[in-house]
Every structure is written in C-alpha cells, then in structure tokens.
Amino acid sequence: KMAAAGAAAAAAGLWSEVNRCGQNGDFARALKSVNKILQISKDDVTALQCKVVCLIQNGNFKEALGIINTHTKVLTSDNIAFEKAYCEYRLNRIESALKTIQGASQQTDKLKELYGQVLYRLERYDDCLAAYRDLIRNSQDEYEEERKTNLSAVVAAQSTWEKVVPEDLGLREATYELCYNSACALIGQGKLNEAMKKLQKAEELCRQSLSEDSDVTEEDIEAELAIIHGQMAYIMQLQGRTEDALQLYNQIIKLKPTDVGLLAVIANNIITINKDQNVFDSKKKVKLTNAEGVEHKLSKKQLQAIEFNKALLAMYTNQADQCRKLSASLQSQSPEHLLPVLIQAAQLCREKQHAKAVVLLQDFADQHPANAAEIKLTMAQLKIAQGSVTKACMILRSIEELQHKPGMVSALVTMYSHEEDIDSAIEVFTQAIQWYQQFQARTNYGCCVFQPKSPVHLSLIREAANFKLKHGRKKEAISDLEELWKQNPKDVHTLAQLISAYSLVDPEKAKVLSKHLPSSDTMSLKVDVDALENSHGATYVRKKAGKLTGDNQQKEQGQGEMKKKKKKKKGKLPKNYDPKVTPDPERWLPMRERSYYRGRKKGKKKEQVGKGTQGSTTAGSSELDASRTASSPPTSPRPGSAAAVSAASNVIPPRHQKPAGAAATKKKQQQKKKKGSKGGW
User: Fold this and answer.
1) Basic residues compositional bias: what residue ranges (predicted)?
2) Using alpha carbons only, what angle is made at residue 292 by residues 287 and 293, rounded to the nearest 5 degrees?
C-alpha cells in the first residue's frame, strides 16, 4: 500500500509537471514526464494521448502515428481520430487521412477544418468549397480570417485549374493573403492587368503588416514577398515581357527561398522562356524541380507541366532515349493527353523519321477520336513539310468538325491553288456552302418566310464567286453571284460581276440585268472639287503639269523655239579619215569579233630565234658585226657608237621583240638618253 501510495504521489507530481510544461510550450520536457508516467502505468489512455500530442508538437509525426497504431485497443478512433488523421496528413498520406476522418464517429470542428485541407490537397475543390462555407457559417472564433483565406484559395484554384468563373464571395481584402488569392483568380480568368494591380496591393499590405513587427528584418520581408513577386513575373511572361519576367525570376532564386514548390515553379517558367536556347542554364534550373517534397507542394497539373518540359528539354539537348522514356511515362499516366504523343512525334521528326511520326499520330487519332482533330492538324503539317501538299489536304478534309470553318476553307483553297487543282478548291467551297445551307435549314425548320443568310455564309459565297471569276469559271460563278444579289439587290458591284459573267453565257440576260444598274446621275459622287484641288497631292501635280498662261506660257514657247533652232554639233572625225574610202562596217566590234580576224600570226621569223644557252651567238650574228664590214676601220669604236648602231639598225633580236608602237617608244627613249648623256669615258 505504501508503494502504491508513493507511485500515486509521484504520478501526481509528474502530471503537474506535464501541465506546467504544456502551458509554457515546452513539449520536450513534457514528453519526458509523460514517459515517466507511462513507466508507472503503460496503458494510461491520458498519458498516451499526451505523448502523441507532445510528439506532434515536436514534429515527430511518424513516431506519433506508430504509437497510435500500436495501441489501437486503448486509443480508439473516438478519442484519437483527429491526431491520427493529422499525422497522416502531415506525412502526405492524404487518402488515409480522408478515410480516418470519414470513419470518425463524431465530426468535431477540428476534424471539419482538417477535412477541408484534405479535400484541397486531393483537388476536390467543389467539396472543399462547401466544407469551408459550412465552417464559416457555423463557427465564431479568432480563426475566421484564416478560414476566409482558405476559402479564397479554393476559388482561385477553381479559376486556375478548372477554368470555373469564380463567384463573388464578398470577402473584404484586408490582408495580403486575400489580395494574393484574388489576383490568382483573376489570372485564371485572363484578366492580367487587374491581377497585377491586386498583386501590387498585396505587396503593399505585406510590407505594412510585417514592418510593424520589430523582430522582422528586411530579408524576412523579401522572403515573404517572393511568392507575390513570382506571380508578378508570371503575369509579365504571359504578357510577352519575357526579359522583365526573367530578371524578376532570377532575383527570387538569388534569395534562396525555403519553399521548394515556389523554386520549382520559377525554375520551370525560366525553362519555358529559354526554350531551345540557353540550354545549359535550363539544365541547371531543372535540378530545382527535382527537389525533395516538390510533389507534395504542387498540383497535379503543375507537376505534369514540369514533366512535359523535362521531356522537351531532353529533346532539345539531343537526349533521344531520355526524351522517349519521359514521354512514354507521361503517356502511361495520361493516355488521353496530347502532349506526350506530340513530343514523341517531334523527336522522330528530329531523327528524320517522318513516316514513323505520321503512323504514331494516326494510331493515337484512331484510339482517341475526341482528340483526333488536333492530331490530324499535326499530321497535315508533317505532310506539308515533306512536300506532300495533296495528302495534307486529304487529311485536313477528313476533320469533319472543321470542314466548314472559314479558316480551314481558306487553307484548303490556298493549298489546292498552289497545286493548281482548281476543281478541288471549288469543291471545298461548295461543300462548305452546302453545310451552312443545311445548318440554316435545320435552325429554320417549319419557317416559310425569307431568312437572310449568316455573314459567314455570305462571305463564303462571295469568296467562291471571286475565286471562280479569277480562274475563268464565269459559268460556275453565276449561281453564287445570283445568290449574293438576291440577298442584297442594292449591291452594284455584285450586279456588275453578274452581268460580266452572263455576257459570255447569255448576252440577252446580261442586257436585261444591265437595266438594274443605276443611272449615271445617281452614281455621281459628291466631291468637293476645290478641296480636292487644294490638297497636297493635287497641288504638286498642278505645279508639275498644270496649264501655263500669260507671260510664262510665252516664255515657255520662246524657249521651245530656241531649242528647235539649236543644231547638234558635228562629231569629230579621225585624223586619218579618207572620205573616198568606205569606212569599215565592223569598226565598232572588238578585233576578235570581226569577220576578217585571223588571229595572231605565229612562226614568222622562226629562223631568227636564238638557240642554245642564253647569251650565245648564232650563225647570222656576224652580219650584225660592223667591225667586219669592209668600210669599217680597224680602230676601236668611240664611246656611244654601239648605241648608234643599235638605233640605226632595224633588226631586233626576236627574243626581245615587241609591238611596233612599243618599239617606237623605246627608240624615242633611247634618243632622249643619248641626247642627255655626257659622253666619253
């Protein structure tokens, strides 16, 4: 009995310690006291509950959940449901947390709060919105502002991911969190300018609220503003201001925020800006998307977009196997999604395997008819890239839901015209016009009065008529022109085209129709002639080509007579011109192009070409030696006599022979040198 009394006293003291530590927030010391109590009584329900709470407060969720699961007999779902669901939620076991909450016998306010968080993480936004509305309606405490913030976050998620137009909740945007969520909802609706203003307001409110706390530094404020700045950069990127967005993204990364989800989103957006450029930077940024815990911070669509960009980056960096692996994994996760198949097709095209790419796309279109239109457009693009325009037209015409669209009709007509297949182009027009006629007949069923055609229908008829007239198919254009004129009898342009077409087929009909043309009086244009003449262009023309009167006209006439009296100067004749000799009719042609040109004469004086080594004399050299002639005295020549002999002689060695003009020039130069020489030795 004494031992039991001592144990009870010790337990009472320990419980007092636990209570005091709990009030002070010292859960580590409280846990030690609880463990001592459990040594005294291991199945004490209150002690076990306190231990679980202490572990949760210390962040030991896994250990806390282990205690709950090992003491299921003592800790039933009735008294520990919230703690168990919260541990599962914090351990990212969201489905298990949902089952625990739904299995609880009593739905307390705490469980309802956690239920809303769980539904948000599961992206069941409609159920989540209903849960938070119920909480706000049925609870009044100091956490009302947090609940409204969560409610606005749900509305923003619906607008962003489900493209639901958000309803006005009437929330007063007094905090920066509410402003931020409102901006996200506006981004989802495409109202980017309004969203930017909301973000600027959120930034201002954030600075005001944090600056009131003296313990908060400027770095802490910038870290809190990082998510707001990230959303601002995203708006800039959507608006095409990529340089500004990139600069702001990099500023946020330099701050090194602790939110791995924010870093992953920013890194992904930078990769989308880089595209196939700056690949080295993209490969560094993609590492941020692989950080631990990212998958629990982002939505499924965000994670999917990141995986798509990883596959594209692998393609741009020529990592074909990695690209195929990633795209195949994405396709297995979302078999109906277009992007994985398009990435695989793009990779095949980079490998010059266009035929395989077309087969891959065709198989996907057959398996998923709902997405066949977009796939077939891609197939047509591949066919055009291969030069198979006709096959591309066949693929486009197989897309039934787009056959009648003006854009598709225009594309097909242009392509057929390029291939000079006018009949097929006209057939495209005819099918589109018939579709609109049938559509109008369905919508006006049972109506007997005249119904005007839609603007798109009339536009197609007019384009068809113009196309037929342009390519000489006036007979075929008559029915279209008559339909247009019937819709608008006052259209003079259409009537003129109709008369022109009938003039080749039925002239009498053309005459009858011509009576409907307005008279020349009714067609007179109301033009202010004075204003037209005083305009800038008319003034310039009048100055340049206007009529001349008075003295100016006489001066001009006088100058004209002077010009008439002037005679042309006679051309100069060559010095050797002989009027008795007929000029050479081919004198204007180059020498080589004249009929009498025989080319250079070769072989003349061939016998005079020196043979042997350079400087050696030939047999005929004695004839040139003046010292051997009879009249030459046997005395030594005077200085300069050799030059005189060379100048007097007409024979020049063939090795140095040049044209006559050059020889004459050389002679003159030699004479000048001779005159200028001093002579003597």
Assistant:
1) 563-573, 665-681
2) 125
